[in-house]
Amino acid sequence: MGRTLAEKVWDDHVVRRAEGEPDLLFIDLHLLHEVTSPQAFDGLRKSGRTVRRLDLTIATEDHNTPTLDIDKPIADPVSRVQLETLRKNCADFGVRLHPLGDVEQGVVHVVGPQLGLTQPGTTVVCGDSHTSTHGAFGALAFGIGTSQVEHVLATQTLPMARPKTMAITVDGELPEGVTAKDLILAIIAKIGTGGGQGYILEYRGSAIEKLSMEARMTICNMSIEAGARAGMIAPDETTFEYLKGRPHAPEGADWDAAVAYWKTLRTDDDAVFDAEVVIDAAELAPFVTWGTNPGQGAPLSSTVPDPASYEDASERLAAEKALEYMGLEAGQPLRSIQVDTVFVGSCTNGRIEDLRAAAALLKDRKIADGVRMLVVPGSARVGLQAVSEGLDLVFKEAGAEWRHAGCSMCLGMNPDQLAPGERSASTSNRNFEGRQGKGGRTHLVSPPVAAATAVLGRLASPADLSDAPAGV
Amino acid sequence: MEAFTTHTGRAVPLRRSNVDTDQIIPAHWLKKVTRDGFEDGLFEAWRKDPEFVLNRPERHGATVLVAGPDFGTGSSREHAVWALQNYGFKAVISSRFADIFRGNSLKNGLLTVVLDQKTVDALWELTEQDPQTEVTVDLVAREVRAESITAPFELDENSRWRLLNGLDDISITLQNEADIAAYEAKRPSFKPRTLPV
Ligand code: SF4
Questions:
Q1: If you placed Cys at A32, which of A59, A85, A211, B1 could pair as Cys (CB 3.0 to 4.6 Å)?
Q2: What is the complex's ipTM, to 2 decimals?
């Protein structure tokens, strides 16, 4: 019987397999950041161990880094200590680090692909759940806990039981104005936040094949929001094209050998998935969340659902609680929801394509009075690229704040936070209670919806802007 | 991880049930960046009371915690185990532990022993009457002994073997060093590297 993409990559990394035990997998790339690594390094020190493969390990600073005044000392003592600890650990153990201020610094899941380190058929881990992002390249990428971070540092392997596989097939054409973000939000709303539990998802079908690498990363990024261990997309010419010439991409004969291998990384025709979901791209529309988990979403053209309409008692209760926290009424049109803040950034939508999409809509327009808009590139390089294209000026002229790279308001570990009761349209991935600041209310949206919302001051799609002429 | 074969020490009787990990180590301690230094956070709220059993001078230096049922419920934080170990505890006895806490404790070399509540009651009485009583937790013989009390306990073979030999997950994996090295030797040259070679 044939094998799925996930099974092929898994099999190619088995160091040891024994009856009744998890497989021991080799890890090709280990990404580190300041939040989940300190106790792992501490553990190594205690047991007198070293980092086994410094050449497969890389660190950057992202969660705690400020996005303003980055040359000044960090005010919050906890953030400062975490960053200083990472710096000391990397220096002590010899790990390559891109600290705040470095040109390669940024959100760890933006940095890996951009350096060409994330490659098809590799295993990638990081002490961060959104490691699933890297699956866009046909890599098997898992988020891990701190004890596992220590395990990988010491052994470059991880004992793991193989998850099941689920195919998510999206055929057809995405309508105009519908992005990868709308697609993944619709998928999560369909299968639920637990729908992917125990599975590696493989996104496939003609609509997926047409997506750029950046769009594919947006989709795989949020696999975890469907409860999945990982998400993957088979590598193809788009993938090879993206990688060619990147700093860590193979060269010469290695490139040819790599591409020959990468081309084998497709699910065989006779392979069988443990579960399958089919979605028609043509039926999709701009999608936003109204609740407090990423599965509580609906097309922007619809209304806030009535909790009473849920048959399942726990879903009904969850919806009631969500509406109360979010300060929304059942039946209210989603387009009528006014926001105070718009956030464009994060490892979901902080790449150059996302900034271009938002800037295209903001050009010659102004954001609404009383709305604060933060644009935070996913990495310092993305920031530089945006500046070279003049996007920073577009944002500033529209009245948005152009910031330095980092996780920023995606989780509010740095000063970029919502105040209690404030409402945001955010291109990030989690709308949990308090995620963007205590008492803050989050609506997850795509970059074009974020930009249109900033202009109109209420949840809006780019199509709504036609009534608000440019240059007003 | 340190091997655990047998341990003898004085005990702390903790007559409370449902001690969750938030009580063992409050959330604000989780911002720390090390695995040690959690001893002051252990049972922080209760320790504000000078009469709390841990604060009693006769309990200083005790290494065996005899707790009520459902010890270690709530959040999965591994810090709860570190806090107990940092404080000096080598073993915790209870009639029932929360699953994740128990998993974490055995991974970190803190022996969690399940005894029936009657035996726990007997240990409480004994160690309350005479705080100097020594309790022996013997993993080789799989029994707890204190004066006239001798109580056998169960522990699955794999966890016992790991504790007796002081093997954490990493040590176990490193026993397969030859397999890892063999795998590394055949990795293709086109695989990415973070450092120049
Ligand atoms: S951008 Fe958000 S989701 Fe991504 S790594 Fe940072 S905090 Fe996590």
A1: A59
A2: 0.94
